[in-house]
Specification:
There is one protein chain. By secondary structure, this protein is an alpha+beta fold. Helices cover 25% and strands 28% of the residues. It is built from three helices and six strands. It has a six-stranded antiparallel beta sheet. The protein is globular, with a radius of gyration of 14 Å.
Length: 121
């Protein structure tokens, strides 16, 4: 699972690594930024809909993260079942809700991502 959080302008989704000062910096295997416009993760973010990624192996999904009606970002979740198997969608929604709640709850106690990702508005 990867967590991508939207910037203030809602133009980019930034990888949240959780590794202190390097949080959000590019890793070897994952891009540090994804554009909202023109990408599948961006479409999941904009439409607030869970979207499977075609050709990503067993099952890769992009799941929107919401704080009430406010969009926070997206989760990239890799599952063992095929992307066409909709039975995993409710579980992924619950996971996204839990991750969002933890992220929002911890934002006042961390400044490693707050300014860069637009938290603390």
């Amino acid at each position: 699972m990867l967590i991508y959080v939207a910037d203030l302008q809602e133009e980019r989704l930034r990888l949240l690594t959780g590794r202190g000062l390097d949080a959000g910096r590019e890793s070897v295997s994952h891009p540090d930024e994804l554009m909202v416009d023109g990408t599948l993760p961006g479409r999941a973010y904009e439409t607030i809909k869970e979207l499977p990624e075609a050709g990503a192996g067993a099952g890769r999904w992009w799941v929107p993260m919401l704080d009430g009606a406010e969009r926070v970002g997206v989760l990239r979740i890799d599952t063992a079942v095929g992307a066409g198997d909709e039975s995993v969608v409710p579980v992924m929604r619950h996971l996204a809700t839990l991750v969002t709640m933890l992220l929002i709850e911890k934002r006042p106690h961390s400044d490693s991502y707050a300014p860069e990702y637009g938290f603390g508005r």
